[in-house]
């Protein structure tokens, strides 16, 4: 198979802007993003089982995301009519309402802009992508999952808090970190700072690997 090349935003890039028809009306991404974090995720298709569990997961966690200044936005290569029928069906069957906008990307333009269409996996359905975009519009974290494996909501929430904690306290976040755990502080840049660190009560594995509680 010939490999098609679509653009893929990278960590540190500005999130590509677009205007789109969504389940909450027409919107401009940059305006939606202004002043808030955005978790922008794609799903392969409406009326499919794994996607229903995933979008329900996002809907159920709406208070968590709102409490952390984060807006949600979904996307699939389906029509707005399909989206609305699916949102309605899920609400009728389960009582869960997808209140966040879901982009109807029938032209595939936004999916291609965000590297959500990965032709080796599917030529017509978006993979399960997650972009975490900060309030300045910068892409801070990207996850891609294939069509047949659902994402992990606990991990999406964890990495959002990890990014926000790292920004707020200018620290790095170690393996398997959970909120409340110690964080890694930047390595000393001078010999004097090194001496200070050696004399501190920080949890220290070596001079370059020290942890503190927040
Ligand atoms: C699903 O959401 O269940 C699904 C969607 C596309 C391919 C495979 C599974």
From TrEMBL:
InterPro entries: AhpC/TSA, Peroxiredoxin, Peroxiredoxin_AhpC-typ, Peroxiredoxin_C, Peroxiredoxin_TDXH, PRX_1cys, Thioredoxin-like_sf, Thioredoxin_domain. Keywords: Antioxidant, Cytoplasm, Oxidoreductase, Peroxidase, Redox-active center. It catalyses: a hydroperoxide + [thioredoxin]-dithiol = an alcohol + [thioredoxin]-disulfide + H2O. Residues 9-165 form the Thioredoxin domain. Its EC number is 1.11.1.24. The active site is at 51 (cysteine sulfenic acid (-soh) intermediate), 51 (cysteine sulfenic acid (-soh) intermediate). Homodecamer. Pentamer of dimers that assemble into a ring structure. This is Peroxiredoxin.
